Amino acid sequence: MGYVYLSRRATFESTPNPIALALERLQKRGIKPLDLTQSNPTLAGFRYRDDAIRAAVSAPDVMIYRPSPEGAWQARQAIAEYYRERGCPVEPEAVLLVSGTSEGYAYLFKLLGDPGDVVLVPKPSYPLLEYLATLESLELRRYELVFCDRWQIDFDSLEYAIDDRTRAIVIINPNNPTGSYLKRVELVSLLELARARHLVLVVDEVFSDFPLELPPDAVTSVAGLDAGPIIVLSGLSKVAGLPQMKASWLVVGGPNDFRREITGRLAFIADTYLTVGTPVQAGLPVLLELRREFQAQARERLRHNLERLRALAATKSACRLLPVEGGWYAVLQLPPGIDEESWVLALLEEEHVLVHPGYFYDFAGAACIIVSLLCEPAEFEAGLERLGRHLPA
């Protein structure tokens, strides 16, 4: 398109990767592979209270528009209560609603950095962060998570990545897809580093309600902490298994003066968009209450599927299932010398099973695959049977 100028920020590689192309070829032949990457809870066979959910977003007052940049007060109260039930001292004034965590990141990147400034994110983690940073004209730089019996932050790589343009450190707790939670000693070090270098800690906690093999020194949430400049992201998509509702939130922690400044500026940004719909704001107290039923089902399924995957891995001495502290995913390490993409393509084309290669998440070192533990158990077990045929012994 040579007759208009288009922003470089919106110039991304649009060519499908070989796995997507192989999947498309199978679908054209009428073959539906077993999808062991399923991450959409509304398509994963969970039981929802449909009538209660519809009623929650259909109350009479949804016909009246009362715009509020921070979000409806009753919704913010419900979110604060959700955190207090988890032992986190969050007040409604510290909560700001957004339509999704991606929008939350976008608001924070607008707030915390000028064009060319730097945001640090963990490696491995999900690739969406790079696009979000680029669209806000920020540079994304990675710090390493290293595995030695369990995942931990490589503080040498973190400090090396910091320079005078660095504005924030993103922590995903638990990480996606490693499933590793932040540890208490890491949190202390991060707070010290943030204070010394005048950085904000942006903590993505969307999966924090789903512990699986939780170590005793894990930090399940930092919401409400006043010990340093912390902003938490989460939302209904994972907390209540309701991605279609498009309601997420930011929780601003830290000292009082930091909270006041940040919440005021975030409200200004939010006021220019006002993206969160009235129905979901009105229904949010009920939707959060209904999370208990979804989470009970999800935790049972995650544990069941993890045990089935562990049983398979135990029969494959050349492979290794890495610890899963929490979240919806598991990492299976493949034998040395295997090319991830070729192996995943062969699994898809020969066994009709879809998994993700580690390079999708910027894994370094040994080849690995990522599977979702959220899949319906029958489909998961059928997929594992085929996966077992393809895995080296």
Write the layout of secondary structure elements.
Blueprint: H1 18-28, E1 34-35, H2 50-56, H3 73-85, E2 95-98, H4 101-112, E3 118-123, H5 128-135, E4 139-148, E5 150-153, H6 155-161, E6 166-172, E7 182-183, H7 184-197, E8 200-204, E9 218-219, E10 230-235, H8 236-239, E11 248-252, H9 256-271, H10 278-289, H11 291-314, E12 320-321, E13 329-333, H12 340-351, E14 353-354, E15 356-357, E16 368-372, H13 377-390
Parallel strand pairs: 1-14, 3-4, 3-6, 6-8, 8-10
Antiparallel strand pairs: 2-11, 4-5, 7-9, 10-11, 12-13, 13-16, 15-16
Helix pairs in contact: 1-12, 2-10, 3-10, 4-5, 4-9, 11-13
Structure, explained:
It is built from 13 helices and 16 strands. The protein has about 400 residues and is an alpha/beta fold. The protein is globular, with a radius of gyration of 21 Å. Strands 2-11-10-8-6-3-4-5 form an eight-stranded mixed sheet, with helices on both faces. A four-stranded antiparallel sheet has the order 12-13-16-15. The protein folds into two domains: about 140 residues, Aspartate Aminotransferase, domain 1, CATH 3.90.1150.10; about 230 residues, Aspartate Aminotransferase, domain 2 (3-Layer(aba) Sandwich). The chain starts with 17 loop residues before the first helix and ends with a helix. Strand 3, helix 5 and strand 4 form a beta-alpha-beta unit. About 40% of the residues lie in helices and about 20% in strands. Helix 1 packs parallel to helix 12, helix 3 runs parallel beside helix 10 and helix 4 packs across helix 9. The longest helix has 24 residues.
